[in-house]
Amino acid sequence: MSTTGREVLRRSITGQRRSVTLAAVLTAGHQGGEALVPVVIGVVIDQAVAGGSVGTLLLWLAVLAVLFAALSTSYRLGARFGERAAERAAHDLRLDIGRRVLHPGGGAEAGNLAGELVSIGTSDAKRVGQLNGVLPFGVAGLAGLLVSAVVLLTMSVPLGLLVLLGTPPMLYLAHLIGKPLERRSEAEQERSAFASGIATDLVAGLRVLKGVGAERAAVDRYRRTSQDSLKATLRAARAQAWHNGALLALTGIFIAVVALVGGNLAAAGEISVGDLVAAVGLAQYLITPFSIFSWVNGELAQGRASAGRIADVLNAPHAVDAGEATLPAPAAGHVRLSALGRGALRDVDFEARPGELLGVVATDPAAATDLLDCLGRAADPATGTVSVDAVDLSTVDPSRVREVVLVAAHDADLFAGTVAENFATGPLSEEAMSAAAVDEVAGALPDGVATEVTERGRSLSGGQRQRVALARALAVDAPVLVLHDPTTAVDTVTEARIAAGLAELRRGRTTILVTTSPALLAATDRVVLLDDGRIAGVGSHAELAGRADYRAAVLS
Questions:
Q1: Which residue, 223, 239, 377, 423, has fewest beta-carbon neighbours within 10 Å?
Q2: Phi, psi of 238 (to 5 degrees)
Q3: Angle, nearest 10°, between helix axes 273-285 and 17-43?
Q4: DSSP letter assigned to residue 392
Q5: What confidence tens digit (pLDDT) does each residue in 523-549 have?
Q6: 333-346: per-residue pLDDT in tens?
Q7: CATH says 1-155+291-319 is which class?
């Protein structure tokens, strides 16, 4: 079932119903008490000042002191409950977005830059969650209006009816005025998220950009994107200013009418001097609830826009569907591709026998990427099948597929923390570290495997990052391991050591090496050559080295 922006809002609020209710009750008590302040002052004038009684004056001053103490307490507690509900709701939304992005079926990243998803999971989630802290104040504003209307009705029916009958049109006009703000807020959030995504990509590829001398082009691209975001933000700011100004003008007119009617009634002797003071005080007080409505309406407009963006991520179709078939446990690791077709791949047929170290050379990088996607079930074949132990992977839940088939991409990222903490699967494997030559990396670092690495491992060299990522993949000890060019950044001596260590460590378990490295291919049992997305040859590295197309891909 698809999730709409309205559903996102509903879940956010109902999930924190208790805290929101408490906040609404407490803030409503605060606003109701605020409305009573001018009433008490009017009573003081009529009963104490006009009567000249010091005792009565002191009594009502004590009542005012108690009232203000209650106002302070109710506001602080109401704001606390509202803020708690807002933060918890935003946290729950971030978890929902995180679960969707990390779902084994994938798909949430389609059409979204990484920075956009981060923006949706942070700023948009915060805006939606904030409504839990905003809505209680809207309820409180209504409570203040009702108390004001009831008090005015007791003073004068015309004054009370004026407030009661005038409030609904004011609220409807506020809703209409908020529509342009909602539209422009959505555009602002989209452009801001896109700018964040571009910035994230540029930072991630900073070294590459410097290496090819593309800094100026990258800066120009970000400047254009940032300017678009700025224009959208300014349009939203103008809409916000127009929205606030229009509501303030409406509120001022309404309050002036209330004060005018009250003044005429006092002049006609229909209400007392104290009632007139209370009526004028209540008219001035009405600025508060209407200001609250203006603020709540603006927050609702922006919250609805953010909820729609969150719903788009939550509704993103999965790249692959869940399956009901299961793989054997333990898996033998017999991989079979039959008439496989997807993207650059054309009618590909080959197998990796249980325990075999199989090399795959793809002359087209796109074919290598499509092959990795199908083997790890990041995508399903358009035609043909990929099976493990005679079970079609497209019929198996993707999370189970990845327990059996581990695909280690060429650009695997490291995480901030120590080198050891990047081995998230459990204790460090000395054998995996040795096979990937990470022991040499640890020896060169000041604190060995306890050395802190920066975000994405940028404090390490390219070769060091590759070796740590390879050791991390080897430590999982998956029945089927698929490696994509794991040694492109290491020197030839280290590469030869890794080839020997990899063959030894993975003995008896299926390993597929998608690479053009002669050192790695020389350690394989067989090599499959993919040219133009089709099988062009199968044999040992030595046998295929006699082919011109193979030499062009591997030895050039």
A1: 223
A2: -65, -40
A3: 150
A4: E
A5: 999 999 999 999 999 999 999 998 999
A6: 999 999 999 999 99
A7: mainly alpha
